Amino acid sequence: MKNRHRSIAAIIAVLSLGIAPMTSAWATHRTEAEQAIAEAKTAHAKAAEADVASLQTQTLIEQAEKLMPSRQFTKAVEIANKAKMQDTFAYEKASGAVTTDVAADRKAKQAIDAAEKARKQAASVGGEWRDTAQMIQDAKDLEQSGRFEEATELAVKAQHQGTLGYEQAMAEKDADFPSYMRRRQ
Known about the structure:
Keywords: Signal. The protein has seven helices and no strands. Helix 6 (132-144) runs antiparallel to helix 7 (148-171). By secondary structure, the protein is mostly helical.
């Protein structure tokens, strides 16, 4: 009986090692977040020198800094990197270091506009899905970072969600409780 308990304990120990990594490589530390914020500030300063810095990226940097006291380092890194990418792209575009694919940019903007239209249509009948607005915002951020193909792909998914949300709400608008269910009064 003792051997059986030991073998069960050994199996549990082995399984737990697979679930929880032994290193902290997955965790974001304060220093990583501080470095990401510093890099975002540097990119913002360069963009400001070229007169292409945006208020949005400054706001993103401030959001990342406000997360530091609450130890939300991973989220701070994510936000700071988003600001850095946008300012870096704006600077490179202004300095001529990168040329914008006008067709891809236009396609991304059109996809984002279509997604926003579909989201608003779904919202008008109470059918907006939870993640659609965030997907559209993420697509806008990708577009501002020069990642046009990814922005288009995400916007198309958001448009699809908007369309499905509208269709679902319209299909369920006259739905009622089945006859075998009673409403509590």
